[in-house]
Design goal:
By secondary structure, the protein is α+β, with helices and mostly antiparallel strands. Helices cover about 20% and strands about 45% of the residues. The mean pLDDT is about 85.
Length: about 140
């Protein structure tokens, strides 16, 4: 291998390592904190409750039903933070959503967020009865 080719390989490798290190440091300081919750619910003809604290359980909901769970977000940092809530999983874009998103909390401030699971009236319950829906709710506290 020619020495000029070796130099190019070494230069590109160093450049990639530096870029990775800068990205890692930036992401570490951009996101100051996070909270991750699992959520679940199922569709049924009757309402069912699950109050276990291990996840956000919306329980059993009929067509047209609404499940709600409250979460408190606290800014324990010495700087203002942007709170961003990301929901992924089953019916995340359609039925599961927060009462507020993309808001600022000052140092020492806290806010109650209600998480909703709203099942449309128009669904055919027969298509969903007994099916369990699951997902993740991620709450990020970002440096502004």
């Amino acid at each position: 291998m020619k020495s000029s080719t070796k130099l190019v390989v070494i230069f590109v490798s160093l450049l990639l390592i530096c870029f990775g290190a800068v990205s890692l440091v930036y992401s570490k300081y951009k996101i100051l904190g996070s909270m991750k919750f699992r959520y679940d619910f199922e569709i049924g003809r009757t309402v069912g409750f699950n109050l276990d604290p291990d996840a956000i359980h919306f329980g059993r909901l009929p067509a047209g039903g609404l499940g709600k769970r409250d979460v408190y977000v606290n800014n324990t940092f010495e700087v203002p933070v942007l709170v961003v809530i990301k929901i992924s999983g089953d019916k995340a874009d359609e039925w599961v959503y927060p009462s507020d998103n993309n808001f600022v909390l000052q140092p020492g401030e806290s806010k109650k967020i209600t998480l909703y699971c709203e099942v449309p009236k128009e669904i055919n319950e027969e298509d969903y009865v007994g099916k369990k829906f699951k997902g993740i709710i991620l709450i990020l506290l970002k440096r502004i």
